[in-house]
Structure prediction request, 145 residues.
Amino acid sequence: MNGSMWMASFWLFLAWGAFTGFAFYCRRQELSTIGYRPVAEGKVVDIRTEPAGGDRSRGEFHDLHYAVIEFFADGKLYSVKSPESEFPSIYYKGQKLNILYHKEDPEDYEILKPGRWSMGAKAANVVSFLFLIGGLICFFLAARG
Prediction:
């Protein structure tokens, strides 16, 4: 029994190391797709409505809904309009967003949405934490005898 607990703790710690390494790999891949552009935390301060023009004005929903986002870049506050306009708005007041902007022109930005690498890193962190807890439990049970 004691030998099997040592083996279980060894394999659980090994799995913990593998999943932690995978989480670091996912995070590195995510950062390589972003590049080295600065990231700021933005906040949706308002949802504005503008009348739609052209063919969209004949539709069921006549208005376009834009989020007004504020973020700081190089110590200066920028207030920009979201590039997407949908009904209903996909953003809400007070929502925090990660803004990826150009250092030369912070008003040229994009909203950073979590991608598959970000989701993979989060999942790997959760699984690695569970393997760590399981490994510690097995280790202390084996050490206790």
Q: What stands out?
A: The chain has two domains: 2-34+117-144, 39-101.
